[in-house]
Specification:
By secondary structure, the protein is mainly α. 74% of the residues lie in helices and 0% in strands. It has one domain. The mean pLDDT is 82. It is a multi-pass membrane protein.
Length: 257
């Protein structure tokens, strides 16, 4: 693989777009992972390098939202911890068991989220009473999504946000904002395991980090400046695209790990 300036600029642009999309709706990995594979990275290195650049995007989004007065509740401590634990277990277990069944389960889950959001136009438009307490949610749904990110990955931010709306009665905006912090946690845990194995291509990762940071910064301000109307259609679109991507991969139509 030849690291040319043109290649790095293309990956920078892809990362910037992915950072914007990921901040608003999740699913940025649908853009960056295929781009890294097309650039010639081996599958494991593509996943590892993707985590390295995604972590700065989620960090930038989280830091920007924190600076605007969000993500300061003490109640976030427990779900952050359980998200990290779930991701660690997932990343450890994925290397030791057969998970081929996820190739069909995950697309169905993503399509289910898209269908639910599409059929409920007022989803998350206002707060309502949650079906779970914050503690119950932090000990069940959050570590499950964290486990999924450690073991698989696509759509993690979308799943965190959807669970916040469905089980905690949060608005879609609130759930999406909180999802940034949880996704940052799971990215940190996953990246630590990949980096320990020497799988990250840091030159490419560093270039894409800058793009992700810029895209996430723009996305955070888009969200806070009335861009919430974009979240719903983006969630639906990214869920469908991620689902089709996973099905195509399983059928051997594309080679995405």
């Amino acid at each position: 693989m030849d690291l040319t300036l043109t290649l790095l600029l293309i990956l920078f642009a892809v990362a910037m777009l992915a950072g914007w999309v990921d901040t608003l709706a999740g699913g940025g990995g649908l853009l960056t992972v295929p781009a890294l594979l097309l650039a010639g990275l081996p599958p494991v290195s593509a996943l590892a390098t993707n985590k390295s650049q995604a972590i700065l995007g989620t960090f930038t989004a989280t830091a920007t939202l924190f600076s605007k007065g969000h993500l300061r509740e003490r109640t976030l401590i427990l779900p952050v911890v359980t998200a990290g634990i779930g991701a660690g277990i997932g990343a450890w277990l994925i290397q030791r068991v057969d998970t081929s069944w996820l190739n069909w389960v995950i697309p169905l889950l993503l399509l289910g989220v898209a269908l639910y959001v599409w059929l409920t136009p007022n989803m998350g438009s206002s707060e309502r009473e949650g079906k779970m307490t914050e503690k119950q949610w932090a000990l069940t749904s959050v570590p499950v999504v964290g486990f999924y990110d450690g073991a698989f990955g696509p759509g993690t931010g979308t799943f965190f946000a959807a669970s916040g709306v469905a089980f905690r009665g949060q608005t879609l905006l609130t759930a999406t904002i909180r999802a940034k912090l949880f996704n940052l946690t799971t990215n940190v845990v996953s990246l630590a395991l990949f980096a320990a194995g020497g799988k990250v291509i840091w030159v490419i990762g560093g270039t894409m980090m800058v793009g992700q940071m810029l895209g996430a910064f723009i996305g955070s301000h888009t969200m806070l400046a009335g861009g919430t109307r974009l979240i719903r259609p983006l969630v639906i679109t990214m869920c469908i695209l991620m689902s089709l991507s996973q099905i195509a991969q399983h059928l051997g139509l594309v080679q995405i790990p």
